[in-house]
């Protein structure tokens, strides 16, 4: 129902002026250092999506050498519409609309070889290349001002993994596996440009009329793994002893440059008079920022070792083990500003025991119990003290962020009447020390979106999974109920004073109810296969505020998808898929209460104060597949 917007991203200059000059300590920038060709916009209907893939596999030299080659190509056009209602500082009755036009091109290439040296020794070598290029235009507009952002991003990953599998002794009781992994990931967003408009988009702002930003980062990852296993067979039982270790060394470098422009001579420029397309606006270079905290190096080194024993006796299978992991994370800011730490890091060692028991109750049915301790590390990005001025809330890193330690208990009954049927029901409990949550934290007069440790939490729940076929018709359903709980400090007003109180709430991003139902249709004789799949995700916390009852929630939503495929005996199949048929909008809100009762002029649902709605639209695909 609207045109797709695109810009001339082929004209983007990949390096910022600072990089082009060799990054000298002092340098001068003029308008001649920038092109405007990439600011030219087009409005037109998008072409259909294209998805294609090809794979080939075979074995050679008396089946000793195996080969699989695969490639894929995907070019998609997506739209998203948002309406922003209440946010702190936004005027009443001033809804902001956002329209996104997004084109993604993805390429994948994979090659895997395996060579059987002997019946006991095997080598496997995998190589992969994945590339994504995304061109996005975002229009923001309310009654006062608007912004047009033209963003192009490229990411790629290269991976090479060499693996060996070796069996020793006459009965192959002793085995060794090892692997060496080398990976590199790269991301660049050159000349990310945003133009500020006034008067309903008809006039260019005078100050900060244009911001152009260059960003890129690369990750290098080297890792090695080794596992040794010995199988000891007893008269009526069996014990398998395993031990191993791994070492991984990751390094990231990140680069950031930003340039600000004003209009020439500080004069307003009007659409239809001074310009019709964005590359026709007369901008004048104003200032630069090359010293942000997004210029950094970061490292992560992980060393780990484990020991494990597996005991099988009759209907029992018992597994017990322990893993020890040492983590060393750190960063170095290239251009530190203010009182932030220019260099910092954290080291910690975790002992992670686990135990698993399986008992065969009757034919095709088991009862399982398990306990495991696990960790969740902060990412590279989260511990760097960066700051980004985003469109809704500013974003910051947290050098003091702790890693999460989780103790997990699970009990499950599983029954498999037939190979294509199952019934499983389980209960689980998790205790999390210092879970990492994204929070809205007040610092001075500003709100920042920061990864935080707000306290310890617990998760308690039940899950049910059923799959049953009735000849050509089948049903697959699962449901999970999770009761999560964390108690944290919150700020609130008492008269004119700010006081601290405690509040118990669910964990960030944790929905209490998640359900999926699929109706399956399959006739092997006639070559038909299809399904209708519906899913429901209950409401969940979207952003945690450090003020009482000021959290932002995401409303529960339904999604419905469908697919059908017809296969022919000559190897050809035709298929169709439909996604997001209901087009249910994402809805975010703040709960009604004394904190929001005095806020007027904004949309509400059931009394709750709406923050935004987003529509992603429906998509349909037709395809053909041939298997030789």
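-> sequence recovered:
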């Amino acid at each position: 129902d609207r045109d797709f917007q695109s810009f001339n991203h082929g004209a983007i200059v990949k390096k910022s002026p600072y990089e082009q000059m060799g990054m000298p300590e002092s340098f001068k920038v003029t308008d001649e250092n920038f092109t405007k060709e990439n600011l030219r916009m087009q409005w037109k209907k998008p072409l259909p999506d294209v998805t294609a893939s090809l794979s080939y596999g075979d074995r050679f030299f008396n089946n000793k050498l195996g080969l699989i080659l695969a490639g894929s190509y995907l070019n998609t056009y997506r739209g998203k519409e948002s309406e922003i209602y209440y946010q702190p500082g936004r005027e009443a009755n001033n809804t902001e609309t956002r329209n996104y036009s997004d084109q993604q091109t993805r390429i994948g290439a994979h090659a895997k070889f395996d060579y059987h040296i002997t019946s006991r020794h095997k080598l496997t070598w995998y190589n992969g290349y994945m590339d994504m290029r995304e061109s996005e235009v975002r229009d923001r507009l309310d009654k006062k001002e608007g912004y047009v952002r033209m963003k192009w991003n490229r990411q790629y990953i290269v991976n090479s993994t060499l693996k060996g599998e070796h069996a020793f002794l006459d009965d192959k009781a002793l085995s060794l596996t090892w692997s060496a992994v080398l990976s590199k990931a790269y991301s660049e967003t050159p000349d990310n440009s945003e133009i500020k408009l006034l008067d309903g988009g008809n006039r260019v702002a005078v100050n900060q009329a244009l911001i152009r930003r260059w960003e890129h980062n690369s990750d290098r990852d080297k890792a090695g793994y080794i596992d040794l296993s010995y199988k000891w067979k007893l008269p009526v039982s069996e014990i398998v002893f395993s031990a191993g270790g791994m070492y991984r060394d990751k390094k990231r470098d990140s680069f950031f440059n930003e340039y600000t422009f004003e209009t020439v001579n500080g004069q307003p420029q009007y659409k239809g008079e001074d310009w019709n397309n964005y590359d026709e606006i007369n901008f004048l270079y104003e200032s630069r920022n090359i010293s942000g905290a997004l210029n950094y190096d970061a490292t992560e080194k992980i060393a780990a070792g484990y020991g494990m024993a597996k005991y099988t006796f009759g209907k029992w299978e018992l597994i017990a083990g322990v893993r020890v992991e040492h983590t060393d994370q750190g960063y170095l800011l290239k251009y530190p500003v203010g009182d932030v730490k220019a260099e910092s890091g954290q080291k910690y060692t975790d002992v992670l025991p686990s135990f698993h028991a399986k008992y065969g109750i009757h034919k095709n049915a088991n009862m399982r119990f398990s306990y495991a301790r696990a960790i969740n590390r902060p990412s590279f990005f989260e511990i760097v003290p960066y700051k980004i001025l985003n469109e809704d809330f500013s974003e910051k890193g947290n050098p003091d962020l702790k890693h999460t330690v989780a103790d997990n208990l699970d009990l499950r009954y599983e029954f498999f009447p037939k190979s294509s049927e199952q019934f499983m029901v389980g209960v689980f409990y998790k205790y999390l020390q210092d879970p990492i949550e994204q929070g809205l934290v007040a610092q001075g007069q500003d709100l920042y979106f920061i990864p935080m440790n707000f306290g310890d939490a617990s998760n308690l729940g039940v899950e049910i999974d059923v799959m049953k076929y009735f000849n050509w018709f089948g049903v697959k359903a699962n449901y999970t109920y999770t009761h999560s709980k964390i108690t944290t400090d919150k700020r609130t007003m008492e008269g004119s004073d700010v006081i601290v109180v405690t509040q118990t709430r669910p964990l960030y991003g944790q929905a209490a109810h998640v359900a999926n139902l699929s109706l399956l249709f399959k006739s092997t004789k006639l070559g038909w296969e299809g399904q209708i799949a519906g899913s429901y995700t209950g409401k969940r916390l979207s952003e945690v505020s450090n003020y009482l009852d000021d959290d932002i929630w995401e409303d529960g939503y339904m999604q419905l998808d469908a697919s059908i495929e017809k296969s022919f005996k000559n190897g050809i199949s035709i298929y169709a898929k439909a996604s997001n048929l209901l087009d249910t909008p994402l809805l975010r809100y703040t709960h009604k209460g004394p904190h929001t009762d005095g806020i007027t002029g904004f949309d509400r649902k059931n009394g709750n104060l709406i923050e935004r709605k987003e529509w992603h639209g429906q998509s349909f695909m037709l395809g053909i597949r041939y298997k030789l």
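The first strand starts at residue 4 and ends at 7.
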